[in-house]
Structure formats: C-alpha cells, structure tokens
Fold these 3 entries.
Entry 1:
Amino acid sequence: MRTYRVASRAAVAALVTMALAACSGTIGAVTESGSPGAWMPSAPPSASASVPTVNPSAQPSGSSTGITDPLARFYQQHLVWSSCSGDFQCAKLTVPVDYAAPNGDTTKVSIIRLRSADASKRIGSLVINPGGPGGSGVDFARAARAIYSQAILDQYTIVGFDPRGVASSDPVQCLNDPQTDRFIAADGTPDTPAEILQLQALGKLFAESCKARSPKLFAHVDTRSVARDLDVLRAALGESKLNYFGASYGTYLGATYADLFPTKVGRMVLDGAIDPTLTNVEITHQQLKGFEVAIARFIADCNKQQSCPLPGGVEAGKAKLARLFATLDQAPLKTGDPKRSLNEALAENAVLSYLYFPESDYGQLRDGLSAAFNGDGSVLLDMLDQRISRDSSGHYTDNSNAMLYAVNALDRPDRPTVTQWQTYADQWAKEDPLFGRFFAWGNIPFDYWNAPATNSPHEIHAPGSPPILVVGTTYDPATPYPWAQGLAKQLSRGVLLTRVGDGHTAYGMGSTCADDAIDRFLTTGVTPPVGTVCH
C-alpha cells in the first residue's frame, strides 16, 4: 500500500548483479540504485576460512568490565566462510532474538563478503547497508563492483548482510502473494466509508498475518536490535571499529549504531540521511513534500524532451496526471492480464517509484505514461512489478514489504487511528492534491501492530565518536535534504557533504566531486571541508 519507505538500493543492485552475470521494492515505495563503476576481480578467496576468537574487551557500549556472560557466546563466535556467488564468501552470524533475554531464542543473519582486491592496501572491512528497511545487503554486496570505486574495492573487504528478518536471514512473513496483490491495489484515496473499511480490513490482516506467520521475530526486527547485531558482526569480523556505508534507511541504522556504540565507530558514511527526531507521521508528510518537488522537476524535464506525455508546463502536467488518476479510480485500464488492471493505486505507485533516479527512471516513466494515456496500462504495471519484486508468475521474490511496516512500527511509537489519518488526508490533499491523500492512507497497518515500539524519536549526538560523514542531496524525494542537515547538526562530530541535484542519495549519482569526497574519507579518514557543496 502506500507508506513511502526510505528506499532501498537492493532491487537495482540485484539488477546490476544479473547484468554482470549475463528491487528491493515495496508496496507504495520504491528502490534506489548504485551506478556503474570500475570492475576488477578481487583477490581469489580460499574456499573456507574463519576469524579468530575476539578479545572480550570488544564489548557493547556501557560495559566497563568486559562482555557480560550471556552475550559472550555471540561476541566470541567464529564465522565459517564458504564460497558462494563466484569469488564471494558467505557465512551465518548467530544473534539473540531479544537482547533483553540473550539466553532465549536465537536467529541467523546472512553475511557475504568480497575480499579486498589489493591485500597490500587493505584497511579492513566495510560493512554496507542499502536501505529499506527491508533491502538485502547480500544482494547489494554482490553488486559492489558496479557500485563502489576501485579505490574502495582495493582497500576494503566489502561485507554485506541481510538484517534480521530480511531475505535470507530468517525472513519475516506476512501476507501471501494473492493477499499482497490486493493490498497493493487497494484504493489508496478512499472516497466512501466502504472503501475506508476495506483499507482498515487489509491493514488489520497485514499486521495480524505478520504476527501469526513470524511469531518469534515479529516484535524484534527493530533498528536498535539490528544495530546491536552490527556490533556482534563487527566483533566476529575481528574489527575493533566498525567501518560502515549506509544509504537511505541505512543511515538511520548507522546513526543508531553510533548512538549505542560511539567509541566503536570507525569511518562511517551516511548517504541520504534520515533525521532521527522525526515521527512516522512527520516522515510521511515530509516525503510527500519531497515527491511533490520531484514530480514537478520530472514534468519540467519532460517538457524539454522531443516526446513528452505531459506538455504545457508543470501545472498543466500535474493537472493531466490528476485526470488520469481520477479516471483510473473509476475505470482501470486493461493490461493484458485479465486478473490485473491498472487502477489508480497501481498507477500512483508506479509513477512515484520512478522518481528516484532521473538518469535511468525518467525515460521509462515517460514511456509508461504515454502508453497509459493511449489506453494501455501494461507498461506502467510491468514497471511497478519490477520495483515491488513481483515476478511474472505473481510471486513476490522478497519480503521487503513486510519489513517496511514491521521495522517502522517498532522504531517509532506514533500509530494514528483511521480517524486521524482521515484528518491528515484532508489536510495534505490541500497541500498536494496529486498525492496528499495517497500518502496519508498508506500507514493504516501501524494502527493494528500488536507489539510495542522499542525506540522513539530523539536527537542522536554520539559523543566520543570520530567524525561521521553525512551526505544529503538537495532534491532527494525520499530523504529530503533538511534531514541530512538535521542529523549532521545533532551528531557531536557530524560533517555535512551536500550534492546539488536530483535523485535519491549521492554516491554514484554522477557527481565526481561527491564521489571523490566520500572515497577520500573512507580511504584516508579525511573529511571534506566544512560547507562543501558538490554539483
């Protein structure tokens, strides 16, 4: 349905991986990508390896006497690596389901690594997270050669992981495939009490199915738990400090880690940052404003192209889109699939999901809209399926949609009722008639989440950490630029790097200035000068 998640690079990373060989998408949310970089084989790994036992002094922040006994077995575990995916190696990390009860149930976290290409220059491990919540870090790492510069690949062993509950890490399950189809296609701008009741029923079904199908992990996939897993991973890798690159939601995970373990932070880059002081309602509202700017910039760009389905300027383009959505609300378009027509909800999802990366997305979006205006809904529907990881058989190939709601519900306590969402929908529709109602109604499942939040919005200062590089892009729709400004100001040693431009995140998005500054920080520890602005 429609909470526009802080998007993940996972889906495009997976596509890049397939391209080298030859999304993590979510309901109402879209994905992010890396851009191609230099490619060179890494040093050949051995078929199997393990790391030495970690010194017990590598304990969680707040302990002055070493690791407490219940956690020692996790911090001192050996990772047994085996060959997978060519020259990559894979392993499993064991962590407690509930850190408050470490002697209870455990869960497995999937890990993958690509060894540094030049052993003589190796700095250590760089743990990466693509965002989401729900993006596969394993898929992201598999695309490392297409995402990171050769300098990073030479000097770091790239380590990706699927956070607890994600993909190959004991995945949380919620709706089945037909139910997910109905959930995504449900009317996101309800006009009648019956349509509101349908949204409520689907939201309740979604939340209840997550608890029923994943009772062990349902209440323990919050970001604080994943951050604690990160520290166990750091120790299992034999690293005294965590070097980390987080994109989008991955910045919130990185900032949470710094909040919990400031003295264990190494070189940390937070690209496409989230402000940790925001509630779920504030995040949704500010993303709405970000996408309002993004659609205007898309239409302006469209008007510069030879063939534009939205001619006549920004306001005329918005009006034409609004008429299309209103028509689809009453008369969905045929798509070639007799079971799936293109209705308003699917069309709005598709349009929004192709505003993240102008270079690759804008042309496809123009084509999809042109087809829709000519009565063919198949192009937009196929585009959306790529972003929500739905294959041609109707199977959803990852669980990113489930994790989107599960993590956000646990990370922040605000869970407005349907009456409150009605109020927000009415207010936001006045601000943005095109998408205001759609954004508001996408949060219904939170009201039915039967597990308490484990965190609440607050400033993160991370006193005692080294410099942390926070990166923001001025026209980023999913993580608006003010979020990066806010996080950089809160961190005791935050340094803000600004990229002027469109699209989600900065690294690999066409700015040599930004890429070089990030690479320099990761390889030397030197931050860009205060106030650095890249184009």
Note: The chain has one domain: 1-535.
Entry 2:
Amino acid sequence: MLLAGSKQMLFSVVLAGSVLFAGAALPASGQASIDPSQMKLMGEVGSRYVSYNVEAVEVTGGRFWAPYKSLARSSETKPAFETSSPRSMNSRFQYRPPINLADVRLRKLAAALGPAYIRVSGTWRNSTYFQDNDAPPMKTPPAGFENVLTRAEWKGVVDFAHAVNAEIVSSVTTSAGVRNSAGVWTSTQAKAWLDYTKSIGGHIFAMEFMNEPTLMGFGHVSEGYGAKEYGRDSRIFGEFLRKESPATLYLGPSSAAEGVPQPPPPHLIPTEQLMEATGPIFDGFSYHVYYGRSHRCAGPNGEDINKILDADWLDRGSGAEAFYERLRDKYLPGKPMWVTETGEASCGGDKWASDFIDSFRMLDQLGSLAQKSVKSVMFNTLASSDYGLIDEETHKPRPNYWAALLWSRTMGRRSLDPGLPPSSELRVYAQCLKNSNGGVAVLVLNVDKANAHTLKVPSAGVRYTLSSPDLLSTVIQLNGQELKVAADGTVPAYAGDKVRRGDVSFAPATITVLTFPEARNQSCMRP
C-alpha cells in the first residue's frame, strides 16, 4: 500500500503571500521563529514567473504521452528507451486531435494564471512543417518532416495568447526537411512562420533554436549531427532572428536530462559541449528539468512513491539549477536563467503527477528557483497527459493548477531569506507580498507525514489552506471548502483566515502560506 495511513490524514496547503522558502524543518513549538520585517532580499523573478507549455503536437494533433488510465498494463513494464518501435507506433502514446484553444472554459482557467508565457515547442516541434496557405490540411507531411502545422492552428495559438494575457515562447523546425544538401539549417520555414505570425498581429517573445539538443537522438536530426553542427546552425539561426525579429529574446541551449541523480539516456550530448560550440550567442540560459523518468520510460525501476516527499526528491530542482548555473556562469556570465520546461517526471509524468502530493514539489521548486532569480518556470503541460495542470478531457483543474494559481495571485517578484536553517521536514520560503507595499508572504511546506510543526510569528497575518482527504487525491479544499470552478471555467474568489501573533501550527503533510501585509519589509517597499 502506498503511503500507509494517508487516507486518514488531512493534507492542508496554506498559500498566501508571495514567497516560497528553501526547506526548513522546525522543532517543537516556540523553538523557531520568523520575522517578516527583517527578511533580506535574495533574488527577483520575472513578471511571468509561473508559466506553462502547450506542446506543438497538441496544436497540430498527433501522438503524445497517453494518460495512465489509457495505457494497457503490458505497455507500462518495458522502458521506452529500450524499445525500437517508431514513436508513432509506441503504445505509450495516444493520438489527440488538435487542442481546442478557443474553448471558453480552458481560456478562463488559463487567463486566471496570467500574466504568463505559453511555450509551444517540444520534441515534435523539431520536425513540424508549417503549411503556409489556407488550403485543407495536408494529409502527409513533406519528406523530412513528421507533422504539419496549419495557419488556422497557429492563429489559434496567437488568439489564445492574446485572450489569456500570455506571451509566446517557441522554437523552430530543425529536421532534415529544412536542411540543404550540405546538411546546413535553412530559414525558409522559419521565415514563413514568423511572417505569418506578424501578419495576424502575433509576436514571439522568446525563441529557442532546437528543443533539447542534449537529446538529439530524439530530435529528428541526421546521423552524425552533433555539437559542432548544432553550434554552426544555432549561430545561423541567431543571425536570422536578429534580422527578422530583433525584439525576440534568443534563449538557449534548451538542455535536458542533466543535473539530476539518474542514469543519462543513450547518446546524451553534454551541455558543456554545446556551449563550447555555440559561443555566447544567447540572451538567456534555458534548460529543462524533470525530477525523474515516469514509469512509462523507466519501467519498474521508476521512482518510489513513498520517497516523493523526501529531501532527495525535492532538492532535485535546485540541484539541476546549480548544475546549469555553473555552465551559465562559465559561458553566459550575467545572463538570466530560464526553465522553459519542467514537471514531475518526463514521459508524461507518473500516475501521482495529477495528485495533491506533487504540489509539494511544484511549490518547493518555485520557491527555491525564485531565490536564484530564475526568470520563469514553464510547466509541462497546461492540459495534456498526467502532468497537465488541467485534465485534458474534463478541463477540471488539478491540484497543481490550484497551487500555481495561488502563487500567481499572492506572490510578488522579490524573493526573501526566511532566516531558517535547512530541514528535511519543514521547508520555508518567502517573497514580497503581491500588490503590497512592504508586505511579506511566507510559504511553509510541512513534508513530515506524521508530525505537526510550529513557527512563532511576531505579528498577525492571514492564512490560506488547501487540503485534501489524501495525498493521492485530486480533491482540493481551501479553508475546508472544496475548490471548484463554474461550468464555464470561472475561478472562484477566496479569502484567508486570520492568524494571531505567536505560535502557528502546521499540520502533517501540509502546505501553508502566511501573509503579513503590514510587515513593512524594506526590501519590499515600492521605490
């Protein structure tokens, strides 16, 4: 049985304020305290810190990671890295028609998270052909491509971004179909796509060249294509981008599968080799991080659900950031860090990625990366497979949606030092309170499944609590009331509970945010 006794626990999440603090477990009542007025500035995030991906294959329609409920048991036992089946035939994938980005409910849910970035990229983007006409969609993509993106589908993305207060982040096609006889990348497809985007009033805020070049074996490049060729082509693309869309940020290298304690996939090309080949051409350093490989890919050797609240698991996000920060400092000193794709586990997420238990990871990741001034964290995905923030069939928000929403509503851009030592039980982060002059928000993650912990606070505040009857549940309550959206996707308003000065207790396996609007923290005062 997973997480024995979890059915009897009440799991609360209190989210208020604008901050997350890097792990800190607290001793008994009265032995640890925080002073929001004295917390020092640590970092500052971008205005669209909490963001999301809508994979290119969702926009075009195609085979993407099948939800576990759709998988036959036999398909869950053989690691995907060990199968020779083509991607299109792999039983771990499920065909999806193009996502309906005009859906009113989906738009309202996404708008509630704004302002945000919507990243339309992913492995499938590397081999997508842009059909630059208004004819019916091609039934078969041209040679060298695997998917077709129509004008109507891309206009749907642009319209969606406008409707939900999102800026677009993307990448370009890099497969054999866009290469000349010498194997060099050419800009014909990219220019047609950018020109059309401009013609319909769209704008690409930031671009990456190739999605996950560290995993080129999954990126539809020709045999023998490596770091040297990537460096050459990424420089060609950079020159093209500066000419065609000079206001667009050039992010890179969009690395993945490094910096976490798991065996690397076959044929991984280290980021260090890529950066040596490109030189300092990027405006920001972008990377992807998944805390593990889901059981679709890892098979029976996947992660142990009983360890998902352990420090080893929760620290993987900050560990990957430290790994890539070292490379940023060496090759792009002074440039900002961007996480352009992340989630519980790669290959669609594990079964519990849609449950309350994963909200601890998500919020801990947001808190720790805010302390390092990461500009944006783009979760995969908005509404697809098990790691989606929203159920793709019902458009019902999952726990991570509510966690992201509460962060977006309450947490400001400046990260503060909570002044507590690291701990494996109580992980505490702090930010300046959103829309407040001098206010502070403190996020407390009690990852101890058995014991309550207490913090002493010097002044009154407000507390918000998300709770669930079980860690492995999608049911979420705010201050004891189940959170639901209206049929059309309208998100409910919410109010916190008042907290007096003195000891504040945090129940086992809960997430709490305390807000202190009157903290008058000097780092949070408006200029």
Note: Residues 50-385 form a domain with the TIM Barrel fold (CATH 3.20.20.80).
Entry 3:
Amino acid sequence: MRKYSWLIPVSILVFVLGTLIFLSPLVIPDSVSWPIKQKLNLGLDLKGGTQIILTVKTDKLPAEDKVNAVENNIRIIRNRIDQYGIAEPSIQRIGESDILVQLPGVKDPAAAAKLVHQAAELKFQLVAKPEDAEKFLNQVDVLVNANLRMFPALAALDAKDKALDKDSKAAADTAKAVPDTTSTESGIFKSLISTSESDYIVRRSDLTVVRELLLDSLFVSLIPKGFNIYLESADETIKSGSEPVKLYVLKSSVEVAGSDVEGASWEIGSSDNPNPQMASKPYISLTFTREGARKFANCTGDNINERLAIVVDNAVYSAPLIKDRIPDGKATISGQFTNEEAKSLAILLDNESLSAPIEEKSSNQISATLGTDSIKSGLRAGLIGLIAVFAFMILFYNLSGLVTDFVLIFNVGFILAAMTIFGGTLTMPGIAGIILSIGMSVDANVLIFERIREELAAGKSVRSAVDAGFKRASVTIWDSNITTVIAAFVLYQFGTGPVRGFALTLTIGIIGSMFCAIIFLRYIMEKTMLGPNKTTISI
C-alpha cells in the first residue's frame, strides 16, 4: 500500500479518539462536569449486587402445568428486570422449581425482591367526608382503649403519657396554676393523630407506632367496617426527619381496581406543570381498560368536589379533588418517590401477574469484598498476560514488536470503550475473553511478521516484502477470525449471563484486533519504518 486514501487516517483517528473519549469517565471524577457520563458496567462477580433464590409454589397445579409455570414466571421476571434497565442480569432455573436471580449493581435486596416477585396492588378509594372520618376515628379510639392490653406498644406509650401528666399536674398544683380546661377525654390512639388544614397528620416521633398498629391483624379486625386507615407514601430520603406524615380515612369500597388498568408508564412532568407534585418530578401515567374507563368515569362523575385517593400497596400516593367527570380512561399517580421508585412501580402495575405464587428462599447482597478480590485477580492476570506478550514481541521482532505493543494497548482500550458504548457488562469470563482476544491479536501480527521475513529472505526489497507480507497474511487472518466470530455468535445467542459476557468481549476483541493488525499497525509502520530510502527493517 504505497498510497493511502483519506479514509485510512480518518478511520484511525476515529478509532483512537472514540477509544479515549469513551474511556474517559473511568478516570474523570463524578464531580467534574463532563459530557460523557456512561461508564463501563461491572458484573456481579466484579461489582457485587443482589442475589435472590425463589421457589415457585407448584404443589396445587396439575402436573402438566408445573413446568410451564416455572418457565412462564422466569419470562415475566426477565421482562420486569429488562424494563427496569439492570445490565446483564442472570436469571436461571435451578432444579425443578427454584429460580436464581443475580442483579449486578443492585444494592437493595428488599427492593429487588419486590420488583421480582411481587405485584403492586392498586386501588382507587374515596376519601371519607370530614364528619364521617372524625366519627370513625372516635369509634376506633374507644375500641383501642377498651383493648389496650392487647397492644403492648400503645400500653407502654399510654403509661408514659400518664406519668408525664401526673408530673405536670403536681408542678401546676405547686405553682397554684389555673386548671387546664383544654384537655380532652380522647384515648391513646387519638393522641397520636392531629389535624392540619383539614388533614389528619402523624408526628414523626409517633410514626413507627402507628405503622405497626395499622399492620396489626388484631387492630384491623377491631376497627368498624366501612372505612380503612392508610398513611401517605412518604420517601424517608426526601422528607425531613421532623415533617409529619398524612393519615387518610378512606371508604373501604374500591371504585376502580388494578385489574382495570390496561397499561402503566412512568414520565417526568414538565417544569411548568401546575401540579407541584408533577412539575419536573416523576409520575405514573395509567390507561384503563374499557370497563375500567367506564368505572372511572362514573366514579369521577358521581363524586365531584370529593377527593379520590390513589392507593398502592396500602399507601396513599395522592388524593386529588375531583373537579369534573373524567371520561378518557386515563389517570396519573404522583407522589413522593424517586425516578427509580416510579419506574419500578410502573413496571409492577404494567406487567401481568405471575403464573404461580413465588416464595423467597433467600435474598442477600453480594459482598463488596468479593468484587474487589475478583477485580484484583482479573487485573493481575490481565497485566501479567500483557507484560508477557509485550516482552515476547519486543524480544522476537525488535522495533516492529514495539510498534505492535503500542497498537495492542489501543486494542484493549477499544474493547472496553466498545463495551461501554453498547452497554455491555464486564465480568470475570469477560476479562478472560479480553485476554484471549489479545492472544489472537498477537497471533495475527506474528503471521504478518513471519510472512515479511519470508519475503525478505527471498530477496525482495523492504517495501515489497511488507506489502506482500500484509497481503498474504490477511487472507489467513480473515479466515481464522471469521470462524471464531461465528462460534462467539452461537455462544451469545444460546448462552446466558457470564457466557454471553465472554462471547461479547471476544467478538469486540476480534473486530478490534483485525483493525489494529491490518490497518492501524500497517499505517504506523508506513509512517515510521518505511522511508523512501530504507533498505533494512527491524523485524
């Protein structure tokens, strides 16, 4: 190749710049403003994450449906995880009815387990009128007082309050104060609830007690029928530690249920949205089925100027005022949640139910120490392999080997940059694929150099020997690499988890090594080692 078209140097420039740009997030701190934010994903063995083992309860299913139930559950779980955007999850069947789920980078086992095997329960319920709510809470207060010994936490709190009242009364008597006429005969339950602008609220100091009480089956069985008590959905990371949480009294009848929802998606509200809970914040958009749209239209049309609470898993996300009949079969859920929470909730509301019940066998976070050890071991193996290859090339091929080593560095960088661009995940098998691709890249260079040596031994000039060496070796390089790419494609198509990671890095490595060996290496040799008057070459 005596003359190069402009495509050759431009392609090399794009190759080098693209590699450097997409590797830059690895060395640039997060605090620095940089347009490239995407970083290379690390697998569960390198980064850590969450591992969950689930058991599908198939004992009540017919024998012919048991196998299909497990496979269908795996499909549904994979669909949920793929929608959430977790890179390179591993979901596989273990034995007859167990499912192993590995989620790299996920640090919250509880949230991951909920996404995998739970279904969000959505309900639309009307908020009780103020007079009805007050009457109901008074009835609950009386019932709790009558059965106080059955609720140890409330009994202890009541005893503490009485002790404080006794001390306050004694101090007041000593000071000959006027008796307090503001005291009421409310019991311990009503003392946990106060009002603010027609809303019931619970102080943060009492929130744990109220939550435990609402989850107590005995308390639920005691409260009068016709109404439910729910707390608002409050994100602890968003709300301050002193801010109270709203408590809602809802009519127990469900106006519209989750089964009436046809689809759900999460969106970000525009900055000029008049609703402060949606302006520049995540919310969930719901589309009802035909029957659900009819129910929602009737509910909103019959209850204008009343509040309709949107309840998900027994927590109220919002309770907007019904201003008009809504006939278009659409609604939104806004509340105190992050982008990840909104995305997860939308996935649960949008997906079909599992074919058979799933029981969580174990759920744990993979230790970060394991990830650190794996990274160190992988890097150590990779560095030893690179150093050995570099030394071999310099020892056997002199200056030409040194040029090869320079190109090889960019080949490794290209693999990592390409995986970053395509959202790939680096795992220990992936590191093995990189090391293998390095070996194959060197193999291509060895073929080229040996061909050049043969041509020089046959008496050809340096320029002719290099041209012939690259031309003759390229045919063999193409043949061997194409067959390897075919094998890698089969592994990626039919493999799972780490096997696919190995196949991906191997394929990218082959593409990079061919470019480096046939184009990049030759271009550098042309510019540095093949001058017009050169009669020898260091090879």
Note: The chain is about 55% helix and 15% strand.
